[in-house]
Amino acid sequence: MKIGELSRKTGVSIRSLRYYEKQGLITPERLTNGYRDFNPITVSTVHTIKLYLNLGLSTEQIAGFLHCVLQNEETFCSEIMPVYRLKLAEIERQIDELNQLKANLLDRIAYVQRDTKTDHD
Hints:
68% of the residues lie in helices and 3% in strands. The chain folds into 2 domains: 1-75, Multidrug-efflux Transporter Regulator, Chain: A, Domain 2 (Orthogonal Bundle); 79-121. It has helices at 3-10, 14-22, 42-54, 59-63, 66-71, 80-120; strands spanning 29-30, 36-37. Residues 81-115 form a coiled coil.
């Protein structure tokens, strides 16, 4: 199937599919006219890529275990747990940073409101 059909079947833009190809996540055959020809199984591969992107993983991280999860169940892929744990730690750091920003902003709001009340009294 051509790239446009793959795009329609997966809901992924042609631009993104080209990027996946460049990253080595999908590999089409090339027709004599130079057009990409994707195997029908590529539809499920792209859905799998989308799943991992929706978990916040990068295409580089996905490339490290994609072949394994396409051939086996996730539980048999030893490469995946370190990636999951790393991503979870990153998210926890981001949550901590956001909580600190929230606390700082709440402090500032309280300060400004106190200062405003003092000016009007």
